[in-house]
Amino acid sequence: MRRMRTPLIILILVYFFSILAMISVPGVDPEGNRFHMSLLDAAYFMAILQTTIGFGEIPYNFTAAQRMVVFWLLLPNVVAWLYSIGTLLGLILDKQFQAAFHRSRFSWQVRGIKEPFYIVCGLGNTGYMTVAGLMARGIHAVVIEYDESTVRHMMLNDKFAHVPALAGRGGNRANLELAGLSRENCMGVIATTNNDQVNLTISITVKLLRPDLVVLARSEAQRVCDNMASFDTDLIVNPYRIFAERISLALNSPIKFLVQDWLISVPGTKLREVIEPPRGPWIVCGAGRFGARVIEQLEANSLPVAVVDVHPDRLPAYEKAVLGRGTEAHTLEEAGIVDAEGIVAATGDDMDNLSIIMTARQLNPRLFFIARQEQREHAELFASSGADLIARRSRIVARQMLSYVTTPLLQSFMQHLIRTDDSFAERTAARLKDVLENRAPSIWVFELKGEIARNLRFVRAQTNKVTLEHIIRNSRSEENELLPCVCLTLERGAQRIFLPDSSTELQIHDRLLFAGRGIARRQMLWTLMDSHSLLVNTSGKHLPRGALWRWLSQR
Questions:
Q1: Helix H or strand E encompassing 5
Q2: Which of 396, 384, 369 is nearest to 285 (CA)?
């Protein structure tokens, strides 16, 4: 409005004085009588004159004096109009104006969200997967992304077209406030940018402004991870450390690794078979942050490791080290590829990692192959490479964060799985395999409260007892068979029961974690939300649904 002030003032003044001029100069009607134009006629004529439409002379043909006045008014009116239009177009095309308009639109979209939502800072590969995962679970997301072109590309995607997105820095307090940080339905902030320092800034800012909010942050540097932990960041995800620990788990307990992999896989994908990484010599190509983590875990398991790296300053830290990329045959031969049993392509370049895998396979096809993948668009290439394990950084981070946000009970089950002996993992694997039909499970949680709790009280009044078996039977089938799912955890207050028996009695406010096929969740929800179906499963009695018939049946 400040930039439009001068053009608008000029336009209004020229228009006003032009109307006065047209009113003051008399005309002649068809009968030859003198007359003066009305205010409406003068305003109308000047409007069509300024806009160059020019319908004609009104209400009667002009006299020579009127035409002379119009001649002198023509130039200032057209110039004032074009000047105003030009200024307005320049304002619309101005980057600052567009940014202000988008911020206003973004704020309006955020205010329109009435359900719980998370603020996601960073829309790279990790942020993309995180937002998609939240939307798939019915949770709203608000995005802050520094790269404006990424935001524009997101707007063109039908899947994300209605997700509020702001081009700006996630660590900026004003941007976070605009994204709804202070709103009551904001559940937390997820920092997924590629810059650890930016993620640290976001975490600190949120914890200072809203200490009660959940903050989930990604970091690949241990120093930054420790800094985040010092002010109680709720979840810190280091993808390199997580994957290195998974390699160690696969070395020590293949069955635990298998169950963990099943539970974190994308629902519906094919289940992985048991893998057993060899316990002989290994070669690690690339000793950066990822490679160093892997080397640390391999050495912790007392395995001999040969390191190949292109940076000479990294080599002295290792007993057996070779200078090179690992893409050349002679470098791998010098590292002992013939006697090695496993190789890790851990460089930061996807093409180099694929080249390492292909070269190593030609020299020793018996190797166990582990590859690091950075770019999402190379997924098919890595799948075709035949690698036994693929470390996808963005997928590791997104899965960890989504699991924490949507199914926090799964985290406690995973921790229990790793702490216990292999027999527990074997029992879990056997029960999952019976119901999954070789497809990765969906994960869901039911809390026995609200409408579900009311139905539970009603059925208990009729039967005195409701057990886990009663809700995992298909109430919509005549055979009343068990649903294809497994109850992993029953949480009751501070108590957690892992793999509870089907005879376990249920109580109000219990939280149940299930893994199984999607159809099982839908059928179970039907049973829990319909007291008649739950009563049929519990007692075998079919209670009339109508209030009158139910009253008569009780008598």
A1: helix 5-24
A2: 369
* pLDDT one-digit tens code per residue, 443-456: 999 999 999 999 88
Tens of pLDDT, residue by residue over 81-124, are: 888 888 888 887 888 887 888 889 999 999 999 999 999 999 98
Q: What's at 490, amino acid-wise?
A: L
Q: For residue 122, give both structure tokens.
A: 């960073």
Report strand pairing: 27-28 vs 34-35: antiparallel
Q: Domains of the chain (ranges plus CATH)?
A: 5-93 (1.10.287.70), 97-237 (3.40.50.720), 240-403 (3.40.50.720), 441-553 (3.30.70.1450)
pLDDT in tens, 416-438: 999 999 999 999 999 999 999 89
Quick one: pLDDT at residue 403?
86
- 248-288 pLDDT, tens digit each: 999 999 999 999 999 988 788 889 888 899 999 999 999 99
Of residues 92 and 377, which shows the higher confidence score? 377
Task: Report the number of secondary-structure helices (H) and strands (E) in the chain.
Answer: 23, 18
Phi, psi of 443 (to 5 degrees): -120, 130
Name 309's bridge partners.
Answer: 323
* HSE toward the beta carbon, residue 379, CA cutoff 13 A: 7
**CA nearest to 314, candidates 303, 329, 304, 325:** 325
Residue 270's H or E segment, with its range, is: none
C-alpha–C-alpha distance, residues 502 and 486, integer Å = 10
**Token code pair at residue 222:** 């241990």
What is the edge-to-edge ordering of all strands in the sheet holding 495-498?
A: 442-447, 511-516, 485-492, 495-498
pLDDT digits (tens, 9 = 90+) for 17-71: 999 999 999 999 888 889 999 999 999 999 888 888 888 888 888 999 999 999 9
Q: 240-255 pLDDT, tens per residue?
A: 899 999 999 999 999 9
**CA 236/CA 228 separation, integer angstroms:** 7
Distances (CA, A) of 295 to 265, 321, 353, 402: 25, 12, 16, 28
**Could you give the CA distance from residue 391 to residue 410 in angstroms, rounded to a whole number?**
21
Could you give the CA distance from residue 309 to residue 286 in angstroms, rounded to a whole number? Answer: 5
SS (H, E, C) 107-158: HHHHHCCCCCEEEEECCCHHHHHHHHHHHHCCCEEEEEECCHHHHHHHHHCC
Could you give phi then psi for residue 87, rounded to 5 degrees? -65, -40
How high is the pLDDT of residue 541?
Answer: 65
Report the amino acid identity of residue 372. Answer: R
Hey, is 172 helix, strand or coil? coil
CA-derived radius of gyration, the chain: 35
Per the document, the length of the chain is 555
The interaxial angle of helices 408-419 and 254-264, nearest 10 deg, is 170
Residues 555, 546: Cα–Cα separation, whole Å: 15
Kindly give the pairing relationship between strand 117-121 and strand 34-35.
unpaired
